[in-house]
Design goal:
With 496 residues, the protein is an alpha/beta fold. It is built from 16 helices and 23 strands. The strands form six sheets. Strands 15-16-17-14-13-19-20 form a seven-stranded mixed beta sheet, with helices on both faces. The model has no long low-confidence stretch (mean pLDDT 97). The structure holds nicotinamide-adenine-dinucleotide.
Length: 496
Amino acid sequence: MERITHYIDGKPTPGESGLRGPVYDPATGRQSAEVDFATAGEVAKAIEAARAALPAWRATSLARRVEILFRIRQVLDAHRHDIAELITAQHGKVLSDAMGEVARGLENVEFACGIPQHLKGGFSEQASTGIDVYSIRQPLGVVAGITPFNFPVMVPMWMFSNAIACGNTFVLKPSEKDPSASMLLADLMSEAGLPPGVFNVVHGDGVAVNAILAHPAVQAVSFVGSTPVAKAIYETATRAGKRVQALAGAKNHMVVLPDADIEMAADAAVSAAYGSAGERCMAISVVVAVGSVGDRLVAAIADRLPKIRIGDGRDPASEMGPLITAEHRDRVASYIDSGRVQGATVVVDGREAPRSRESGFFLGASLLDRVTPEMDCYRDEIFGPVLTVVRTETYEDAVRLVEENPWGNGAAIFTRDGGVARRFQFEVEAGMVGINVPIPVPVGYYSFGGWKNSLFGDAHMYGPDGVSFYTRQKVVTSRWPDPSTSAVDLGFPSMR
Ligand code: NAD
């Protein structure tokens, strides 16, 4: 049985606690590896390695840091396929989707390659006579990232690219469900010349996470995961005086107006709801069919579902892979029954898809129509291939539905009317908006983040917000000796 160790101070480091967790191949349902779980003491060793690496790394010139980042980009690019294969083997998503994940993650390294530009401060010459004022941004120190199973490469890259580019050192606690990709990233970054200790990986569960949150040397915590855990981590870590950004769960609505191109809307809904088996925080989980569009849209979506090719992500013919675990598959499937019992129409039951009856954690695409906001399938984040359709009379009802939902990650509108689209952009309560685009994940030079229960903290992730999250600002007021202007003055400094 393969054993996955920690990665501390530039090398794989076996855990000594004897605590381990299983890692599965979701396509076969068989255990493929076991991963070491860190104790608080082992987490402290990783943090110590990051602390020891900090002075030299933060003093490394921007020119040299950028050189290393470019090399990281080059080495990761050369190994795109290897990284994607590891994602598929442990997460289950199809290889083409895993390649897409790597590409979107690399955007963040590319953004970080321009870090000298992003770290530039302001400069005011002669703010007062003989006095200049300027601002600089400095790293925080040791920072940590705690990441979810659904993007085992992209989400860590959202965090560490800017963090290390800004001169911090990093400790990553990836999901224990698909931990190997982070080990490959660590290895490849060492190969690219990143000094030991700048990027460390510890595996584990809540014990490892709590040890990170409690450690006084950790200055900032970036978290991505489910809402209850995000909220708890935000509260604990802010109480401990750390800077925190905690990105959380979602329920993303796609509003379809009667003037929309129905075929295009149906293609978009199916792609965004069932891609990666619905295990994306930006997946469309609710289609809001406005006015007369309902019957035509539901029929167009239902028509597409039997054609989705479900199978092992390593098979190039597969379009949708399995779910992450058997428990998660069963939990997702339970919403089909609860929806029916609570009054929804089950248009397509994914449990009847052929692959759902075989080994592996497969579940076919399901479609529930005439869902209402009180139903569990609407209230909970399902995080699987179950798309719900809520019908509303008017555009205003649709926008109110999004507003009243406790989450606010993404929201999309499908229409041909530019005026309504612009109104939607103005008033919808969500952090990321798509106009005829179902999954509006911002490109790497913007920042990613939701509203309401989809984000705890102020800073969005990656892009410009990432740079400001991982740095502190200093403003310098400077005068060079000129004896002719020197005098004792007990008044409050004012500009002259
Ligand atoms: P999760 O919350 O179960 O786990 C996330 C991380 O927290 C993992 O590293 C896990 O080991 C750790 N963790 C889990 N329980 C913990 C506990 N009790 N105490 C401390 N740490 C704990 O999330 P997941 O199932 O891995 O990922 C899916 C969730 O992530 C979904 O809710 C999805 O919406 C969300 N997500 C959000 C975004 C976003 O950007 N908003 C992106 C991706 C995923």
